[in-house]
Amino acid sequence: MIKLVLEVVSPESIRRDYEVKPRWYASRGIANYLVLDPLRGHVVTMWNPAPDDYLGRDTISYGPELTVVSPLGKLTVPTSRLPVDPKAPHPA
Fold first, then answer.
1. N or C: which end of the chain has fewer CB within 10 A?
2. Angle at 72 between CA 29 and CA 14, to 5 degrees
């Protein structure tokens, strides 16, 4: 069984990654879904799957380390090293 999914957003996949896939993955009981978005310079973490979407969701600007606790254990992502589109908005 799949416990964790990570997606990297591209200009062609925005709607799919943010709207379609969360519902699809949550309905299949995938515990954690992470969307790494170089177009916006942030990561969206989703957890606690329900029948039609995730109940938990956070958006974190790239910079600090992100630690995700999943059924697979702790995953640490050094977000300051992730690529960012030069046109991405900078956090305020």
1. C
2. 55
Edge-to-edge strand list for the sheet holding 54-61: 4-8, 32-37, 42-49, 54-61
Those residues whose C-beta lies under 8 Å from the C-beta of residue 52, and which sit 6 or more positions away, are: 23, 26, 27
Give the pLDDT confidence of 53-68 residue by residue, as tens digits.
999 999 999 999 999 9
Structure tokens at 49: 């799957």
| Token representation of residue 55 | 């109940």
- Residue 79 Cα distances to 8, 20, 62, 63, 91, angstroms: 13, 24, 5, 5, 14
Strand pairing class (4-8; 73-78): unpaired
